[in-house]
Amino acid sequence: MAQQLDPNEIVTFKEMLMANSVMVDALAQLLIEKGVIGEKEFVRKLKKVQAEYQRMSYKTREEA
What we know:
Layout: H1 13-33, H2 39-63
């Protein structure tokens, strides 16, 4: 039997996305502030990963 969800514990997709974005942003800022990575290094990596995600998304759409 399915368990009933507590309406007070349900979050919207927008809330979940915002919470995730804030956590990722805070982590990136902390790594840069602590000198673990440089800001330019972070931006380069971010652009590279974003391009990879876009290629995967495009490839997935072609296969559908």
